[in-house]
Design brief:
The chain is mostly helical. Helices cover 73% and strands 8% of the residues. The relative contact order is 0.10.
Length: 103
């Protein structure tokens, strides 16, 4: 019985150590990937800001077409720009929503 418990504890330790090392490597990879993508992301956000400056407003669909990215990506960009205080969302949901530059 003692041998079984010792083997069980050892196996759990090995599994736990393996999973922790994989999580650590995934975190390092995520940091690297985000660092590599940051300049391109900022350029695209700057394109949105320039379009807003030139045209006054921008919808999600227009931003998707302008940047050639998905709906989810555009939402992330607008959420970040809104959190930075650079844009304001006008409307709650649906097709009537658009974004303008913050005052």
């Amino acid at each position: 019985m003692d041998t079984f418990i010792l083997i069980l504890v050892g196996a759990v330790g090995i599994i736990f150590g393996y999973s922790m090392s994989r999580a650590h490597m995934r975190a390092k990879l995520a940091i690297f990937a985000n660092t590599e993508r940051a300049p391109g992301k900022q350029k695209k956000k700057n394109v949105l800001l320039k379009h807003l400056h030139d045209h006054g407003k921008l919808t999600n669909a227009e931003a998707q077409e302008l940047l050639g990215v998905s709906d989810t990506t555009v939402v992330v960009y607008f959420d970040e720009l809104e959190a930075e205080g650079k844009v304001v969302q006008v409307g709650e949901t649906g097709r009537g929503v658009h974004y303008t530059l913050a005052n």
